[in-house]
Amino acid sequence: MNGGECMAGQWPIEERALDDLDLDLRNVRIPGGDLDEAAIINYLVEAAGLLELARSILRDGYIDNELPVVVDEGGRCVVLEGNRRVAALKAIHRPSLLGMAAPKIERHISRHRDADTPTEIRVMIVPSREAAQPLLARLHTRNPKKEWIREQKAIFYHAQLAQGMTVDALRARYPDEQGSTITSYIRMGEIRDVVRGLRFDDPDLARWVMNGQLKITSLEYAYERPKIQEALGLAFDKDGLLASKQMSEGQTQALIYLLRRFRARTLDTRSHELIAKYDAHTNFAEELRLIVIGAKGGATPTSGPNAGSTAGGGGAPSGQPGAGGSPVSGTAPGASGHPVPGTSSGGAAASGDGRGAGSATTVGGATGSTGGTGGSGAAPGSQPGARGPNRGDTHTKLNMDGFVYKGSSAGLRRRFEELRSLSVKEFPNAAHDLLRTVLECSIKDYFAASAQATAAQTTPAQPSKKPRMLKDCIDELAAAYQNDARMRNLINMIKHGGSTTATKYVGTAVSLNASNHEPDIVFDAKDVHEAWDKIKPILVEIVGK
């Protein structure tokens, strides 16, 4: 190589027709197999925002301030640098190259019918691949031959299905990849399609998913686990294809909850929830299952490749973390993963007095609108009216749909009515305190109605004016439901709250007590919604039937 070959400024610049430019098939780090131009273009659609680039070219015109770099090989000009730009121009003039994605670019073309897109472009012609390497290395992290990571390979292989290629054909075309490896790539591509097709209420979460910050290779540690697959209702066939990419509302909420956990870094590849040998894994799978089955309208598809993307509102499931709820509180001590120790004692006053016949009280919910004021006028005994799906912590008031207090305590009924009317946005700490009160009092009410004594209950032989503490109540409830797997998991969510993550901390006995006993601990509206989502299904079971 001579000095002139190394100097990009001395290489000729000429115009070439798009039809005379070939994409660089050697630019793709896929082991073995025969590639074609359509395969590369479909990969660029999935992984490199080719459609967005084509749309910007149609809208703003083609700007050639950065020229594609080409080399003459066998009488053809092969594009060494600028494959994405050349591919976008080719796709604009020949949408069929995009396979199943062709209608998308055709829609862009129809909106910009007056766009003047070139059929010939200026290119810089290098004498050889070797001569171009210093330039390409400077442009691409000085390691242009670095092999693709798993996620890039998954995007590539999955993109080939858009051309109508079968998974068996992929295995035959790329024999250097084990068949099971290609299947795992297809599963990854399927999940990527699903999560990118979810309807997000949280624009920050949507951006995190759509701009590539979400690492599907990390999410793989969740969806590849059989218990989590089953809990989420994901069914893959032998080729790695999902039986359906249309997610029900419950599946949507469970996936969004999972994404929030990964984004907040309260869940990662080392978390016990994702390692099968730990009890936390079973509990986590059950938590996801409850979200899936707990959402209203669970049979209605609310997401998928054809169901929208970042707009719209997925419903928050009853008794589970809502789509809008952040897994990290900005003010609660759990945000740092270190709640205040020694706060498991204390308790709200028992609701033993004031008991009477009393009719069942319906605790109404907020309206379906964002930030609705909801149901403060609902009369005791009334059932919640028809409403749209909930949207997590965007509500001004707690979602109490489906909960009817059916106990006989007038005092506890009054507390539920106050909780229903309280704005958690204006008074989050008052609402959080009241959550603790209704939980403890409901457990006491349950055992009083069931005529079951507790170890901490006062007896004639050993009188005491000290009320039972929240911890005692929860322990007693756990013992009473030790043979009920669903309730056992729900109770465990609030029972355990030592040094843990922010999401797990909110709604635990430790956090509820911290709110009641620690002067410097404060909670926000998101914390209250998340705590209520954990407590509500327990209340439905013990005082709502």
Helix count, per DSSP? Answer: 21
**What string gives the helices and strands in order?**
HEEHHEEHHEHHHHHHHEHHEEEHHHHHHH
Strand content: 5-15%
Distance from first to last alpha carbon: 84 Å
Q: Calculate Rg over CA atoms.
A: 29 Å
The description of the largest β-sheet is: 5 strands, mixed
DSSP strand tally = 9
Average pLDDT score = 74
Order of strands, main sheet, comes to 1-5-3-4-2
The secondary structure category is alpha/beta
Unreliable spans:
1-6, 141-145, 296-302, 305-391, 452-467
What percentage of residues falls in helices of 4 or more residues?
Answer: 40-55%
Question: Tags for this entry?
Answer:
single chain; 545 residues; alpha/beta; 3 domains; five-stranded mixed sheet; two-stranded antiparallel sheet; 9 strands; elongated; disordered N terminus
Describe the structure.
With 545 residues, this protein is α/β, with parallel strands linked by helices. The radius of gyration is 29 Å and the shape is elongated. The chain has 21 helices and nine strands. It folds into three domains: 3-147, no CATH class; 179-324, no CATH class; 361-543, no CATH class. The longest helix is centred in the C-terminal third of the chain and has 23 residues, at 428-450. Residues 1-6, 141-145, 296-302, 305-391 and 452-467 have low confidence and may be disordered. A hairpin with a 2-residue loop joins strand 3 (69-73) and strand 4 (76-81). Helices cover 44% and strands 6% of the residues. The protein has a five-stranded mixed beta sheet. The protein has a two-stranded antiparallel sheet with strand order 6-7. A two-stranded antiparallel sheet has the order 8-9. Residues 342-364, 379-388 have a biased composition (Low complexity). InterPro entries: ParB/Sulfiredoxin_sf (IPR036086).
